[in-house]
Sequence to fold (360 residues):
Amino acid sequence: MQKKIYLFCPSIHDGGLEKTLSIYANFLSKHFKVNLITNTFNSRRLKTINQNVKIINFKNKFFLQNRIANNLFCIFKTFMMNEQKLVIFSLHDHFFLCLLKFFKLNFKLIVRTQTAIINEKNKDEENNIKEKFFFRNFLTYFYKYSDLVITFSEQNKLFLKKKIKVKNVEVIYNYFPQQKAKKKLKKIYNIFFVGRLVPDKDPIFFLKNCLSLSKKIQFNICIVGKGSCYEKLKLMSKKNNVKIFGYVEGGIKKLNKQIDVICITSKYDGTPNVLGEAVAYKIPCLAPKGVGLSNFILLNGKGGYLYKPNSDNDFKVKLKSLLLNYKKAIYKSKLSYKELSRFDYNNTLIKLKRCINEIL
Fold:
């Protein structure tokens, strides 16, 4: 008889976390009885989840207006199901579930850290989220009451085990299967930003510096995504050679032949998915040094280009170098592509299944 797991994702948007949710749900449904708990009206994302997953979507607009209220509402509805052996796999907003474990409620809890953990590994990330420093540290402390914490880096694992005293932590990378793709030299290259158009991803930084550099070197600027920065980006793009696609489901997969360079400009991040997917298509990448897994995926600069975070000048210098030496950029992308085996099926999804089985 298959064991039951409740995937807990109170709100669903169109970011990397949601893509991971789809991948996890579809994979785990082959080995467990999977129920997805959510309160969302994002039917587009739910359509990417296969029929083996039972989607329990409350569609309550009142609670959806407030993130904390929505979280508590979903928790309440989950526990009202009166499962004898409740197993919850939380994809985000873990605090209240961890708090219930602190108060000794009898259920199994798996949490996945989806974004940056303040662990002194990178001062630039810490400075960018300093306004949330205490709050994030406070939340992270309660991870110790979960049964399993899944995180995205060895630095995080070390911090959680030594500083927070989390007993069971596993590093499980996101799944990035290698794709058949090839890049070639061109006269004019297409520089892309792909991701949520929100302040922490900093598409404003991307566009501002690309517009500045485009006065010296000719290239096309392309933006894929949606979010709160959209209107400002649109305003900045007037009378310039900028194409804003809006949201595109599976953006890199659909547009990879058009993409010559991917730029990551996150202030703080987890993996991120866009970078791994770009490497899977051998797309040359420029990313902030030490943010998320940028160094790890791009082999500390051997497999791509790294710029100093928050530095307009260094971003433009590195992007210029990439464009003027695109043959070298292709070579670098092939090196990071070869090392993508660290993110293959066995090292990601199979490892996830094994770790879950060990606590059930």
User: Anything to note?
Assistant: The chain has a mean pLDDT of 92. The first strand starts at residue 4 and ends at 8.
